[in-house]
Amino acid sequence: MTLVAYFSPSGTTKRIAEILAKEADASLYEIVPETPYTTEDLDWNNDYARSTVEMKDLDFRPAMADTAAPVDTHDTILVGFPIWWYREPSIIDSFLDAYDFTGKTVIPFCTSGGSSARDATERMRGLLGEGVNVLDGAHFPASVDEDTIENWCEKMGLDD
Ligand SMILES: Cc1cc2nc3c(=O)[nH]c(=O)nc-3n(C[C@H](O)[C@H](O)[C@H](O)COP(=O)(O)O)c2cc1C
User: Fold this and answer.
1) Is 160 domain-assigned?
2) CA 102–ligand 1 middle distance (angstroms)
């Protein structure tokens, strides 16, 4: 059983998460912050914007609206997010902290303005520890089409 869990404050990753869930016949769960990010919060050109301040602190864990993701009942968890400051947003770290992923396979996927999934994948491996199989993360362009996502699911063995 596959779960697609995603965070997507401006909708780009959400579109891909929805297609992935359809192609992989997976459950879909949105990681929602307790306090949603406003447009001002997401202004990476502003040193004092919420996201800038939060992302400078590697230990910061923003509160989530709930901890009801059905992680327990799924073996493979796709975790989707936009790249923020070359890595996963802090709320993804909140998500990883909140559940027990021991024995499960985690597959990161991301969208970005160009940065790859590499640094996020490495950090997520470190946070989850050795008992979790974190596969190399996938990066999808914002304009990726359904066929490409379908082919990726097939390649990853997620199409059944
Ligand atoms: C606070 C913030 C930081 C970002 N940092 C990066 C970055 O380091 N590298 C990059 O390529 N894109 C960066 N981006 C662009 C986003 O990754 C990109 O727009 C993403 O597709 C947005 O996904 P969403 O619509 O699901 O939120 C950043 C965006 C925001 C809001």
Assistant:
1) no
2) 29
Task: State the closest ligand 1 atom to the C-alpha of 142, by its place in the atom list counted from 1.
Answer: 21
**Contacts of residue 53, Cβ cutoff 8 Å, sequence gap at least 6:** none
Is residue 88 one of the residues assigned to a domain? yes
HEC-encoded secondary structure of 13-46: HHHHHHHHHHHCCCEEEECCECCCCCCHHHCCCC
Written as one letter, the residue type at 131 is G
> How confident is the model over 86-100, as pLDDT tens digits?
999 999 999 999 999
**Which DSSP state fits 94?**
H
Ligand 1 center–CA 81 separation, angstroms:
9
CA 90 / ligand 1 centre spacing (Å) = 13
Task: Kindly calculate the radius of gyration of the chain based on its CA atoms and give it in whole angstroms.
Answer: 15
Q: List the Cα angle 133/95/144 in 5-degree steps.
A: 75
Q: DSSP 3-state helix, strand, coil percentages of the chain (rounded to 5)?
A: 30, 20, 50
pLDDT tens-place string over residues 15-73: 999 999 999 999 999 999 999 999 999 999 999 999 999 999 999 999 999 999 999 99
The CATH number assigned to the domain holding 41 equals 3.40.50.360
